[in-house]
Design brief:
62% helix
Length: 160
Amino acid sequence: MLEMLRALFGHEAWADAEQWRALAAHPSALTNPEILERLNHINGAQRAYLMVLRNEPVDLTELVKPIQDKGALQQSFRRYHQEMADFLQGLSLEALHTKLTFAWHPAFQPTTREALLQAVMHSQHHRAQNALRLRELGGTPPMTDFLIWVTKSYPEPAWD
């Protein structure tokens, strides 16, 4: 289970980087309000899940503030992926069964394993929305399927 979760988050990091490069290659994509709002949402949600997983206090008002500078937003994505990889390296099988509490949604009490799966699936959903919007803007969305990543021998994220 830990190996699969680490693979899913390795794929997530790679797919986020592929998304960034595709968006940066199309002039209007990183200025599109829908895409920017979604990138900020993805980043805020990813960071919120990581904070809950690490049992840190979560300030949602801070996490939902949009990062206007695209370079700073990309750096926040990169930092998150490194921190998540570090978290997963230290995670034990026993910890996967720990119940978590989300202060903003007290009825939501998943296990660590369930929260990790939700976090990675949530990001995938929004990357797909950004891919569709990029295509609508005339750009070419990257192929970010999990099996593409596997076929390419699990490449590291290439942000630039």
